[in-house]
Amino acid sequence: MSIKKILTENNGEQIADSMLMPARITPRQKAKADQELAAHRKKRQESMSSDDKLRYQLMQLKFKLENYIKKGHFEPTHHFGYYLDQYLRVTGRKKKEFAVDIQIHQTQLSNIIKNRREPNESLMIRLELHSRNMIPAIDWFKLHEMEKGYQIKTDRNLREREKQFVTHSLQEL
Amino acid sequence: MYILEVANGAQHPAQVSPVLPADFRNITVKRYVFRWRPLVADCELYKLTITGSDDILGLVALIEHPAEQRIEIKLLTASSENIGQGKQFDRVAGCLIAFAAQEAMDRFEDFPAISLLPKTNLKQHYMNHYGMEDSGRQLYLEDIGLFNVINEYLA
Known about the structure:
By secondary structure, chain A is mainly α. In chain A, 69% of the residues lie in helices and 1% in strands. By secondary structure, chain B is α+β, with helices and mostly antiparallel strands. A nine-stranded mixed sheet of chain B has the order 6-1-2-3-4-5-7-9-8, with helices on one face.
């Protein structure tokens, strides 16, 4: 189908609904349009209130977290602590302040962030409450579950240790 | 992600994946409106198909602008039988735009955005249809607008 035919047989709404009909401009005009766009976005971002920015950044973190869970592929660097650290960054809370906010010991918080200690369900609920339900506890739970699933699939040492307790396996029966 | 069969309202699960060299055997100007092969040099090309089918129902060419945390939609079209009145499937273009939005979200941390440069007389339609912002020559989506288009087409 030719562009001419599309433009003559369809109205603007039908075209926008099906395709991008691009403007033809010179590279110089495009460079100017890019500058214009960058300036427009900068102005818009600067005019956002701190509340709007926080809300947006929390939505972004929730989106990334849920997308990661949906993909279902655990990456060892993207553990519970990684996303908890992202949450602190987005909310602009220092570890000390945040530990007070949700009433846990700062060392415990640090260890969870560094993936040296496992989170419990109370923490997940407190995180939900702290975010005013923006990031639900179930998201934190599923993230932790993904990590546990990865561990049990890949932990060779645990398999070696547990071998001694299995005196008869199906092969020998 | 799904597309809608106009005749009976059936939802068909769809997917977006990179265009492969072998796909160009079937990517004709007649069916996909533009010449896509020359874009390979500067753009990332993706195709939309119904899950489990090889038939390409839409194409999009993207250009990444990392310094601006932006992905530009250089070109996009549904296949010719899915353009205008009497089209077989709806939501093809929306799904491809939402895919670009999701890529921007995945690739950039702070303020990801997508943009496009449509013919001036069509700008208002893209703004109405996808909630795009006007920056002069170009249109764009960022922050809540990106979430909206992703939730509408990819959820």
